[in-house]
Amino acid sequence: MPTSMLMPSLSPTMEEGVLAKWLVKEGDFIKPGMMLCSVETDKTTVDYESMDEGFLRKIVVPGGSPAKVNQLIAVLTEDKNEDITQYLEKALKKDQEQLAAKSGPKAAPAPSPAPAAASNGSGPARAAYTPGPAPRAAVAVAPEPVPASGGRVLASPLARRMAEDAGIPLTGLAGSGPNGRIIRADVENYKPPAAAPAKGAKTEGPVQRPLYGSLAPIAPTQDLPLNMMRKTIGKRLLESTQSMPVFYATMKVDMGAINGLRAQLNRAPGYKVSVNDIVVKATAFALREFPQVNSSYMGDFIRQNANIDICVAVSIDGGLITPIVRDADLKGLGLISTEIKGLVAKAKAGKLAPDEYQGGTFTVSNLGMYGVDEFTAIINPPQAAILAVGGIQPEVYLDNGVAKQRDVMKMTLSSDHRIIDGALAAQFLSGLKSLLENPVWLML
Amino acid sequence: MDSSYDIVVIGSGPGGYVAAIKGAQAGKKVAIVEKADLGGICLNWGCIPTKALLKSAEVAYYLKHASEYGLSAKDVSVDYPKVMARSRDVAKQNSNGVQFLMKKNKIDVITGTAKLVAKGLIEVSDAQGGRKNLQAGSVIVATGASPRMFPQYPIDGTNFITYRHALDLKDQPKKLLVIGAGAIGVEFAYYFNTLGTEVHLVEMLPQLLPIEDEEISKTLLASFKKQGINCYVGAKVNEVKLSKPGVIEAKLADSAGKEVALTVDRVLVAVGMVPNTKDLGLEQVGVKLDERGFIKVDAFQETSVKGIFAIGDCAGKQLLAHKASAEGEVAVAKILGQAKHGLDYGQIPGCTYCQPQVASVGLTEKACKEKGLAVKIGRFPFSASGKARAIGHTEGMVKLIFGAKYGELLGAHIIGSEATEMLAELGLAMKLESTYEEIMHSVHAHPTLSEAVMEAAMDSQGKSVHI
Questions:
Q1: What ipTM was assigned to the predicted interfaces of this complex?
Q2: Same domain, yes or no, for B331 and B404?
Q3: Which end of chain B is more exposed for a tag (fewer CB within 10 A), N or C?
Q4: A158 in contact with chain B, both atoms CB, cutoff 8 A
């Protein structure tokens, strides 16, 4: 009776690996515990040990070739000379069918639910959108998101619960238990990022004290400690700027229609929709049209994400965080607006749950409210792009030779050139511009 | 023999000998000074020999109750000297085991009484009047504790005795008064009662095992009464008088203030311990003691004098062998410069080996209340356990206390057969900061008494299967 030997899954996130080298050859007798082959994953190279016994009759995936997890890589038999032709044919056919099923709808930007393999990260397969909060997996069993440095976050069950309750990201905690395990005391001793000097200016308006010509003593040079958030921001953004070729493209949007729309929308009782809410909605719409922009660079392949999960950059004390509007393309403007308000409030209170800020497929950063005309933002890997939105400014323009005034907003797309080329960025921006200038399309 | 060491340990009880081994394993040159037998009180006159006696009592219980198991045992009698001899033999074997461990780890065993002369200098005088000086980079004091003496109970070793004498009695008392219902008093009360002595157990505080959870102690009190032990809690000993050798008149006032007059032939005094910190030269070298004579130490067991450490009973807190060993490890880690954490004294288990056994770790229900903690409590009685019924021990329960908000294990209390063995998983759960979820979702083998632990965790959420 032949048995199949399948490509092992060597880490929870592994989907595919390279069968680097066979350590045995066809005809060899395999015993449990014998080293069969070395397998390269996205993280490391591991020697794969046999759990079966038998004669290695056929190597299906030769050394140096990639294989999906659970793909047939070899066939074993109990009997040295048993005929394996039929078995092999059947097994190969099954593999082909499975592969086809997985990769089929992946490329199509259809709004229908895509299979799990094509969905973003380890999340469940995308389902039709249902209002209300998404069910959250029990904390005790939910796999922690992998921190930037790789590996699992070691934390006691109690520490996990306390951190979740307090909205403290486990990845921002330093563990004092064995092997850096995060324990209760670490969560209790967690100090929220210290108030940044900008706080006063932000909450109390312009600084009142005289800046120049004052005899007030000048604060001495200070060495401020880096909190975990600053360290993480520094590390991730440096990584981003050093690891990808980025180019920037800016486009100007006539905001007349949006201003009109907002005026109408905000007459609806209970709603106060911001420009940013509309930008998020329109961006999600545009991403649906340009799925290449909603992608992640995964090293040796590009993942085109099925979900459109938009991160919204929020400035908080001591740093910034990017909570996520999940499935923003499927949500109405009212819901997006309410969700963003909720997320911002939670972010400022330091109460975001990890699944509310980890993941995301595209980011919108808006500095318009600070009077910024335009700026460029740094991409949050593995996302492929980020949209930097400036403020609305009046400008004079010529309409058939007549000088007129209008409100405009500038938006700048930072793109990872490994995924997005200049023309694509331009098409995306111009699609987004059309949506913003004709916001009634968002009702479609 | 070169008399200069990296570490000199004074006292070879479970604190001292473990510290010595840990030091030697790390490559340090270690000596241990012992004035009596290796292993200290624990191995020779405490933990181990009492467990041997209690096993004899349990076997006697089974023989007396053989018919309940469908067996008959006739003419069962207690051969008291042989019960004692077995206990002494067990102690001896254990002491020899420590001797072997010292040799294996190349630790010099120095017999005699140690005295600190200066910070790094110890003088050891042996019984023959010989003296020698040991130089030590670090000193670990692990001298233990002794029974507290009261003038009204003149300990003479025959009429008024302590646990130490009880472990070496030539004859079995007929009527025994046990003063103090801590672990020692309770264990001896159970032991003598089971072997046929008429036992009167008196405790000043309102419950047996005053440090245990009230509900657990109440269960024990009910069981002891059923076993025929005369228990007086919240009671006072007004008078004890030796009228003639072997005849002691005692007058107690019970919890209601009513006088109880007893005539017994032996009084076992088990009311607290005092540290062995005198005549060690501690004060002379500047080691500070607290008002009760215990050595003051920091979180890493270091005394007020750098390089001198104290562990175990002489350093206060819980007077328990396993706490001493754990402190020994902390002290050695500190000496090696590897210490990260001191001991968490809220996670030291405590066990009492009467039947039903009592075992606990963490906070009692009352302590939680006093700390103002909101809790969820789960209980599971052994009367609902199939295994408990099969072995004929349906007394007792598992009681688990969890924080209401996060579900962390705050306290675990078990009374019943094998309670002391069942406690271990709860100590681990607490150390790992587990919540009720991990405990109730750990599949427990069936049939075991330990299933009650899982059920109690479920019960804390109102989800017990078998009650």
A1: 0.76
A2: no
A3: N
A4: yes
